[in-house]
TrEMBL record:
This is ABC transporter ATP-binding protein. Belongs to the ABC transporter superfamily. It comes from Noviherbaspirillum album. Signal peptide: none annotated. NCBIfam families: oligo_HPY. The keyword Transport applies. It comes from the Bacteria. It is a peripheral membrane protein. Its main location: membrane. Keywords: ATP-binding, Cell membrane, Membrane, Nucleotide-binding, Transport. Gene3D superfamilies: P-loop containing nucleotide triphosphate hydrolases. Residues 25-272 form the ABC transporter domain. Residues 319-346 are annotated as: Disordered.
Amino acid sequence: MSSIPSHPGMPSDGKGLPVLAVEDLRTHFIGRTEATTAKAVDGVSFHVGAGEILGLVGESGSGKSVTGASIMGLVDRPGQVVGGRILFKGQDLRQYGGEQMRRLRGNRIAMIFQDPMMTLNPVLRIDTQMIEAVLAHERVGKSAARARARDVLARVGIPSPDERLLAYPHQFSGGMRQRVAIAIALLNRPDLIIADEPTTALDVTIQAQILYEMQTLCRESGTGLIWITHDLAVVAGLADRVAVMYAGRVVEQGSTRQIIKAARHPYTRALMDSIPSRGVRGQPLRQIPGNPQSPLNRPSGCAFRERCPRATQACLQEPPVTIGGGEGEEGRELRCFHPVGDDSPA
C-alpha cells in the first residue's frame, strides 16, 4: 500500500501520518460520451489530522457529498472514482476490496447522512440496530453493547435512553432520528467521521449540543471529522480548517480564521457576503449572480469566471494552486488568478 509524509504542522496519528489525505480525487458519472459524463469531483485534495475538524463548504452541486461518498466507497454506478488517492492512515482505500471496506465502514470510518432514514432500518428496533453495529466489529457481549448504545444515546441528548432503545424509527421525530443516526456513527469510536449536513433537521438548541459533543469527541479521542455543509456560520464555530468547493474543485482552503476573517477567493468572499448580518439591517442580501456550473462538459479555465466580478482573459486558463507562506497566510491554498486583496485584477 502507498504511504505519504505528513504535511508541516499537521496533526497526525502519532506515526507522522494524517488520519486522511485526499490527493487529486476525481469522481465522474460516466455517460456514453465525454459530453454526457458528469465530473462531479474533479481534482480535489485536502487532509484531516488526528483530532482535527475540517469544514467542507460550498453551494449545492459543488461536489461535497460525492466527495464524502467517494471516501467511503459508496459511489454507485454510473459513478466511478477515476483518479487520485484516498489515503487513510497512509493506506490507499482505492486499493481495498469490498470486504476490506466493509470492515472499515462503521468501525474505523463512519458517515452521518443528511437523511437519517439512510442509516436506520424502519422495521427494526433501535436497540437491535445499535447492538448489531457494535457486534459487527467487536467481540463483546450483548449487554456490554447495549450499555454502550444507551450511553451514546444519552450523549447526543436523547432523554430516557433505556426506553428509547425499545422504540422503532417511526416513533421518533425527524430530529430525534437524526440524533440516533449520529449516535450510531459514534458507537465504535471511529478514527474518522464524515458528517454530511447532519444537523439540518435539528433545532438550534440541539444543534449547538451536537456540535459541542462532536468537538469534545475529536479533542478527547483524536477522531478526525469532515463536516460537510453550506452553512458558514456553523463552520465558523466548529471547524479548525475550511476547504471551499466550487464545481467539483477546492478553490480555497486554510485555517478557519483565515477563511472567515479574510477570504481571498472571489467565490468564498461572495459566500461570506451573502450571510445575513446585524450590521446591514434593512438592506437586501447580496446574491451571487448566475448559476453554478453544470458538471457536464465543463469548459476549461476557472469555473467561477462567468459569475466573478474580477474575471479577466487570464481566467480562460486553469488557475494554478498557490500556497501562502507570508505572515497570516501560512498553509492557505488558493486557486485564483485575481484573489481578493490583489489591487490589480485586470
